Amino acid sequence: MKILVCISHVPDTTSKINFTDGDSKFDTNGVQFVINPYDEYVLTRAMWFKEQQGATVTVVNVGDATTEPTLRKALAIGADDAIRVNAVATDGFEVAKQLAAVVKSGGYDLVLTGKESIDYNGGMVPGMVAGLLDYNFINACIELTAEGTSIKASREIDGGKEELSSSLPAVIAGQKGIVEEKDLRIPNMRGIMMARKKPLNVVEPIEAAAATSSVKFEKPADKGAVKLIDADNVGELVDLLHNEAKVI
Amino acid sequence: MSVLVLAESSEGKFKKIAFEATSYGKKIAEMLGTSLTVLTVNAQDPSALANYGADKILTVNNETLSTFNAQAYTQVVVQAATAEGANVVILDSSANGLYVAPLVAVKLAAGYASNVVELPTSTAPFTVKRKAFSNKAFNYTEIATDHKVIGLAKNSFGLVETSGAGTIQEFSPDLSPTGVQSTAIDKTVGKVTIADADIVVSGGRGLKGPENWGMIEELAEVLGAATACSKPVSDLGWRPHSEHVGQTGKPVAANLYIAIGISGAIQHLAGINSSKVKVVINTDPEAPFFKAADYGIVGDAFDVVPKLIEKLKEYKAQNA
Fold first, then answer.
1. Domain B2-170 falls in which CATH fold?
2. Which residues numbered 189-248 in A keep a CB inside 8 Å of some CB on B?
3. First to last CA, chain A
4. Is the ipTM of this complex over 0.90?
5. Taking the model in full, what pTM does it have?
C-alpha cells in the first residue's frame, strides 16, 4: 500500500494571532510553526499501516521552503520520504489541485489528511482532493483499518458514530480517535538523525487557479470584562441569564 | 439564477439549522434580486420551510437516500443546482454538511467558503466573512467563481421568519452507485447532542473524578442541555471522547456554555469561543476562563452547582 499523508504547516495553537500590511497578511513574526494537530493523528495512523502492513509512507506539503522543517519533523516521526510542492497557494481549492496532481503522478492508493487545519479551518482540501480524483472519501474519520483493497472506517456524526465500508483508492480525513492521544508519535533522537538523510523532493506546481482569495483579516471585538457573581448569591446568575443575556 | 439551500432533516424532521440555512439563503436571494429554492430529502413536512422564506421547495423522496451518503447527496445537490440554475449553494455546518460541501464545490467548479458567519459584505465582488484561526480571527474571503458554495456556521445567523411562496415540486435525481457504504449507525437516543444543543454544560478536572458527574448531568437536565467535558477529562477516561469539546474535540457554538472546573486552556477556548454567552465556575480567580467568560462565579463547584440547580428549578417552577 502506498500512503500519502498531507501535512499542513500551521502556527502553534498558543501563537498570538496578529496581522500586518493593513490586516491583509498573517504576521509570522515570532510565531512557531508545527504539524497541524489533526495531521499528527493521521500520520501516526500511517505509521501503524507501515509497521503492521508494510505500507510506504510519503508526506507532502504545498508551500515554500519555510515549511521544510515541518516536513523533516514528519520524516523524523517515521515517514519514508517527503515532497514539497513549491507553491504558495491562495486557497484550499488550489492546494487540492496541487495535491491531486501529486497523488496521480505517484499512484498513491490511500491519502490521509487531517479533517481541517487549525489556521484557516476550511475543512475543504480533503474532500476536494477526493472529488478531483473521483476517489472514495470519508470525512471526520475516527477509526480506520484496511485489508487488501477494502477498508473499514468509522466517522463521527452528530450525536454518535457511523461505521462505513469502502475500498481503495480513497481519501480519509481523520481526527482524534483514528489514534488515541496517548499513542501520538513524537520524534526521538534516532528519528531526527535518520530524517536528515531521507529524501525531501521539491516539485514545481502545476498550473492551477484558486477559486477564492483572502481580502483581509479582522480580530473579534474586545469583549467586556466578566461580570462576577458572589458564590453565595447564585440566584443572581439565574436572573442575569434570563433578563440580561436572555439565554434561558 | 437562484439560490439553493440544502435543508437537512433527520428521520424526516428538520433540524434547527435547516431553518437557519433557509433564513440565510432568503436574505442572500434578496441581495441578489432572485428567488430561493430549498432542497429537502425525505422530509415529512417540507412546507414548514416557507415560513423562513423558501420560494420553491424541491422534495426528493427516495428510499436509498434514507441513510445519508456523501457521494449520493453530492449528486442530488449538484443536479438540483443545475436544474435550478443556482449559482449560490448554501450548506450547513453539521457533520453531513461539512462532508458534502467540498465534493459539491468540485463538481460545480465552485469556490467554497466554510464557517461563514454573516451575510456577504458585498455581492459584486462576492465577499463573505468567515471564522479562521480557531475562532481567534475572521477572514473576509472573496469568491471569484461563477458558482459559489457557502458553509454557514451554526448558530451564527439565527432564524428569521419571512413568508415565501413555498411552491412544492417533486425532484427525482438520477443516482449512480457510490463507493462508500454505511454498515451501522450508533447514535445516542433521547439525549441532547452537543451539535444540536442550545445550552452546553461542561465539566473539567476541577470536578476531581467521574463519580462527581451526577450534578453536571442534573444541571444539564434542568436546562435541557447537552453535557461536555475538557480534554484532560476525556484523556483520563472519566468521560467518553465524544464529550470532549475544544480544538481537537467537538466545536461548540451554543447560546449558553457553562464551564465548571475548567481552567480555560487556549485549546479549550478555541473550540467553544463561538458560543454566545459563557459562564465559568471555578475556585481559581486567576483561571484564564474568567477572561473569556461573560459571567463568572469564583467558588467551589461542589458548593455552587447544587445551589444553581436549586435556583434554576425555582425559576422554572415560576416560569412554567
1. Rossmann fold (3.40.50)
2. 210-220, 223-224, 226-231, 234-235, 237-238, 240-242, 245, 247-248
3. 54
4. yes
5. 0.96
